[in-house]
Amino acid sequence: MALRRFWFALLVLITLLGISPAFAQAPVARAVLFYSPTCPHCHVVLDEVLPRLQAQYGSQLRILTVDVTTPAGKSLYSAALQTFAVPAYQQGVPALFVGQIHLVGSDEIPARLPRLIEEALAAGGNAWPAIPGLEPFTASLDAGAAPVSQAASSPFSRDPLANTLALLVLTGMAIVFFIAITRLRWPVARPLPATCFRVIPVLAAVGVALAGYLAFVELSQQNAFCGPVGDCNAVHHSPYARLLGIPVGLIGLAGYLAILVAWLLDRFANLRLARQALVVMTLAGTLFSLYLTFLEPFVIGATCLWCLLSAITMTALLWVVAAPAPRHVARGRRSLAMTK
Fold first, then answer.
1. Domain count, the chain
2. Is the pTM of this model over 0.85?
3. Which of 33, 101, 182, 242 has a C-alpha 20 to 30 A away from that of 278?
4. Which of 313, 69, 88 is nearest to 207 (CA)?
5. 231 vs 157, 158, 306, CA distance in Å?
6. pLDDT tens across 29-49, in order?
7. 224 lies in which domain range?
8. CB of 251 within 8 A of CB of 212?
């Protein structure tokens, strides 16, 4: 009798242990993140914010990531905007939906998401956002599959076509810069060839137009017309669009205007200091353009066509300013040296 009771108690204990995980199932916080592969702000959330939270909460956090550049992702994102009546000024990616709450941007999502996760877990978990057509996307996660972390991609791979163009421009700029360095001899006192001298104000005027448009876009916070290649707005909305709080476009505009002023002083006052200023400003402008052009494909992951055109213009100015001396000037110098 005692042996029978022992086996019965053991069977009850095993049964309770077997079903206890079902009763003790941990609550789960659920959310949906919409992103674009060419959006640098999205990669801040995907590569920096979500992995940290996933490591902290493990299986208690399930965030579905949806690429809005795919047809299915775009359709689901449109359905989410309509369902939650998201106003136009809040539409954009990265966009996160947690229950009835909509977060947008690489500032708001990291600031508010941890608290929303804690609130959802404290309430015993939450359901997926009520977005029409979401069920097929969440089926694997609800079936117990581990959340799939977004693979960290290199910035260059976010837009290979545009970033390859930026790389080609960067290479050409570097070659021109080093050739110009070999041509220059300080102090710069020689006159430029007449053709080159006439080209400088034309190139500077083109630079003023390009930098002026970029400055307008950055100051007004409007979207730029990007054209068929690249993502200008991703570049302008990146942290690198300002230097010490000053829009980069405004710095470029000031630089081109200063080059025009130096050319005028050289043209009408024949000041050697103005000619030297032209050399210094075009060297500095090309170096700065090299830095900015490097950031686009390798750090930001997006390329601005307007920025590339401005960088090409500045590099062309350096090429002209560092042009070889006219032949008659070079012959005169050699004759003087022979006489001595």
1. 2
2. no
3. 242
4. 313
5. 14, 11, 10
6. 999 999 887 677 787 888 888
7. 156-338
8. no
